[in-house]
Design a protein that fits this description.
Blueprint (H helix, E strand, L loop, with lengths): L1 E6 L16 H17 L5 E4 L3 H8 L6 E2 L9 H8 L11 E6 L3 H11 L12 E9 L2 E10 L5
Parallel strand pairs: 1-4, 2-3, 2-4
Antiparallel strand pairs: 1-5, 5-6
Length: 154
């Protein structure tokens, strides 16, 4: 299974948090990363986004169908995110690639857990994608970091 973590692009400050929209720069970041994802991500991609407006707008830049899951809202846990995607198995439908559009610190904590085995604070830049693969080698399950792409390099 592959898991892509996409942090929402730059958003306006304000309250309520769930209604914050992307800035013009954020819209550009989302478009740049969406173009990269369309070129590099597999066709059978399952996309799941936080209900926050900024995540919805980031996901919409792909022009593909996506699901919204309340368990990806700001403040939710790494365990919530992993349950949404059923890492490392991919769930009943056995999606081999899932793209999550979400928030810090959950995305960074998820990246830390997947790569180091310890849930700690790692920063994922706004608009960036981190791409992980899960594989088995010689009976051992491994997580591989395939790519880290910030929007300015997409």
């Amino acid at each position: 299974m592959d898991l892509l973590l996409w942090r929402h692009a730059e958003a306006e400050d304000g309250i309520p948090d769930l209604k914050r929209k992307l800035t013009p720069r954020g819209e550009q970041q989302a478009q740049q990363m969406a173009a990269w994802l369309k070129t590099h991500a597999p066709e059978n991609l399952r996309i799941v986004a936080s209900p926050a407006k900024r995540c919805q707008q980031t996901a919409q830049a792909l022009d593909l169908l996506f699901q919204t899951d309340l368990r990806l809202a700001p403040g939710n846990s790494v365990n919530d995110l992993l349950a949404v995607v059923d890492w490392p198995d991919g769930g009943e439908t056995k999606h081999h690639t899932v793209l999550v559009v979400g928030h810090q610190p959950t995305l960074g904590r998820t990246a830390a857990l997947l790569l180091s085995g310890i849930e700690t604070y790692w920063s994922i830049k706004k608009g960036s994608v981190w791409w992980f693969s899960n594989r088995t080698r010689l009976g051992e399950t491994q997580t591989v970091l395939r790519a880290v792409v910030p929007p300015e390099l997409a």
